[in-house]
């Protein structure tokens, strides 16, 4: 009898342990714990190794909150550099390969664009201009443009549209501009042609919903590197999607739709700022010929082409890109 009792107790405890283990495994796969942990480590990296600190700014419109990473110890001797990201995650994930080096030469201001990361707005406007006004409003709140000093803006992809609008509206504020892999000035006809290459609905690619969508986004953006993405388990990619896209999915889709479907101005305004244009020669999102077209449009610009690099220059060639940015912004 005693032995039977022990067997029943063992089975009961084993059942409890197995239930707990099953719950733990379920939590591990269903809750985006891996990406949350990775995101926390990125925050620590920004704080400890890059001397950056997080700041959240409420704008005067009473509707918009913009989250920044800014230099913890700003120095008068260093220029102010604003870094504007594209689609594909928040600012930490996109600039992780660059911030350490750039923080040694510049006072950095790195916002999450509205509806990315921790930035949000109740405003129903999804235009590029509202993004630009939100970033400038945040910079003014942070004292970035006080004392008559200007700023330089480094931007990639979607961020390039925002940076160009900033340079157009506030020429007295933006002194120099770096545009990387951005379709600024794309005509409606050119957008339609590029949409057809990638299956028509690029908004679904920009805002992935499934692991297959995310793999496609990475493959379109990259020429080399990240080939291991085919080996990454679906549950990890699903966790990344949950953390980066689910909270503001509808707003991100509306931003993409506004960008892709809006009619451009008959002629792209010519900005006066000195501009550095950087492109990967294997860019499959915005082909290289657009880089030459943009250079011809801007008389005060120069073009640098990085070989064997795709759209995501910030990930595939961060050291080369950092050197180009630093030498351009610091040059007199």
End-to-end Cα distance, whole Å, is 92 Å
Helix and strand pattern:
HHEEEHHEEHEHEHHHHHEHEHH
Largest sheet: 9 strands, mixed
What characteristic shape results from the CA principal axes? globular
Count of β-strands: 9
Count helical runs.
Answer: 14
Strand content: 15-25%
Q: Percent of residues in helical segments? A: 40-55%
Mean pLDDT: 87
Q: From the alpha carbons, calculate the radius of gyration and give it in angstroms.
A: 23 Å
Which structural class should the secondary elements be placed in? alpha/beta
Low-confidence regions: 18-29
Oligomerization status of the protein chains: single chain
Can you walk through the features of this model?
The protein is α/β, with parallel strands linked by helices and 332 residues long. It is 47% helix and 16% strand. Strands 1, 2, 3, 4, 5, 6, 7, 8 and 9 form a nine-stranded mixed beta sheet that branches. The longest helix has 29 residues, at 2-30. Residues 18-29 have low confidence and may be disordered.
Features:
globular, nine-stranded mixed β-sheet, hydrolase, Meta-cleavage_hydrolase, Alpha/Beta hydrolase fold, alpha/beta, 332 residues
How is this structure best summarized?
Pfam families: Abhydrolase_1. It contains 14 helices and 9 strands. It has 332 residues and is of the alpha/beta class.
């Amino acid at each position: 009898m005693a032995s039977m009792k022990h067997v029943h107790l063992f089975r009961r405890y084993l059942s409890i342990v197995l239930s707990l283990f099953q719950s733990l495994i379920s939590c591990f796969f269903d809750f985006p714990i891996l990406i949350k942990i990775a995101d926390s480590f990125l925050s620590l990296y920004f704080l400890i190794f890059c001397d950056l600190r997080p700041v959240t700014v409420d704008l005067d419109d009473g509707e918009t909150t913009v989250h920044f990473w800014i230099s913890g110890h700003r120095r008068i001797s260093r220029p102010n550099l604003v870094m504007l990201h594209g689609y594909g995650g928040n600012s930490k994930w996109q600039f992780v390969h660059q911030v350490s080096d750039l923080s040694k030469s510049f006072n950095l201001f790195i916002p999450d664009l509205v509806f990315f990361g921790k930035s949000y707005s109740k405003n129903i406007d999804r235009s590029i201009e509202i993004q630009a006004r939100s970033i400038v409003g945040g910079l003014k709140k942070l004292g970035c443009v006080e004392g008559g000093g200007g700023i330089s803006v480094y931007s990639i992809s979607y961020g390039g549209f925002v940076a160009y609008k900033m340079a157009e509206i506030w020429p007295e504020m933006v002194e120099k501009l770096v545009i990387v892999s951005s379709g600024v000035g794309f005509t409606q006809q050119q957008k339609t042609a590029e949409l057809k290459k990638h299956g028509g609905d690029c908004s679904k690619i920009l805002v992935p919903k499934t692991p297959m969508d995310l793999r496609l986004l990475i493959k379109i953006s990259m020429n080399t590197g990240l080939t291991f993405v085919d080996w990454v388990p679906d549950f990890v990619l699903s966790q990344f999607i949950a953390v980066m896209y689910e909270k503001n999915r509808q707003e991100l889709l509306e931003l993409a739709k506004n960008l892709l479907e809006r009619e451009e101005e008959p002629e792209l305004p010519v900005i006066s700022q000195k501009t550095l244009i950087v492109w990967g020669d294997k860019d499959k999102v915005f082909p290289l010929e657009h880089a030459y077209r943009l250079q011809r449009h801007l008389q005060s610009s120069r073009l640098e082409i990085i070989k064997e690099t795709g759209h995501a220059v910030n990930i595939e060639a961060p050291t080369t890109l950092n050197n180009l940015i630093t030498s351009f912004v610091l040059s007199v």
